[in-house]
Write a structure and sequence with these properties.
207 residues; 0% strand
Length: 207
């Protein structure tokens, strides 16, 4: 039962956290319609690695604080709630704002993304994208603070795998769908993160 909860919670976290990376993957697909299959895997893999590393680093920092300050543990549910409400809310607001700004034809949208993305997607650019889209995931270490090392590794690995699949799908959709689906997916991701924050808070404070 505990493993099932870890699995489901990690998949939901992975989906919610991956939405920013998904949007960037879609943009990369639009801007580079003729990219090779190896490049698609490189994009998805880069985002997956960062989405794996950031929560793990966050978990490690929380563990360090818990060892030095026992009182920190009492505030973990509150901190997780505040952080996930903030991250999820920010994702929803930004997605709605971007969707309003993107009320243009698909061909025009493609040209705009091309101008922003540049002529060629370099590895250095991809690393910057990976860091930028995974910074929020650092604070997600608070949501898995009650896991031991093995459980934390399993949870963050699942988040990484989910991110890889979603971003690979995002690159594929880039040329065909444009940014409209990405905006909607980001809203869904934000709602999921808020729901997880509420669930962790209720479980940690009332049960």
């Amino acid at each position: 039962m505990a493993f099932f909860f870890l699995l489901v919670n990690s998949i939901l976290l992975g989906f919610g956290l991956a939405m920013d990376a998904f949007s960037v993957s879609v943009a990369n697909g639009i801007a580079n319609p003729g990219m090779k299959k190896s490049k698609r895997y490189q994009i998805a893999g880069t985002f997956a690695v960062f989405q794996f590393l950031m929560p793990m680093i966050g978990w490690g920092l929380v563990e360090l604080l818990k060892e030095k300050f026992a009182v920190v543990e009492k505030f973990i549910p509150w901190t997780a709630l505040i952080l996930l409400l903030f991250i999820g809310g920010k994702m929803i607001v930004e997605a709605i704002r971007d969707a309003k700004e993107a009320k243009i034809e698909d061909d025009t949208d493609k040209e705009a993304v091309k101008e922003v993305s540049g002529k060629k997607l370099t590895f250095a650019t991809l690393i910057v994208q990976g860091i930028a889209t995974s910074i929020d995931a650092l604070s997600v270490g608070f949501t898995i603070a009650d896991y031991n090392l093995l459980q934390a590794l399993a949870a963050t690995a699942i988040i990484g795998v989910v991110t890889f699949i979603i971003c690979l799908f995002g690159v594929f959709l880039g040329r065909r769908v444009g940014m409209k689906l990405a905006h909607r997916a980001t809203i869904v991701g934000g709602i999921i993160l808020i729901a997880i924050g509420l669930e962790i808070f209720i479980k940690g404070v009332f049960f």
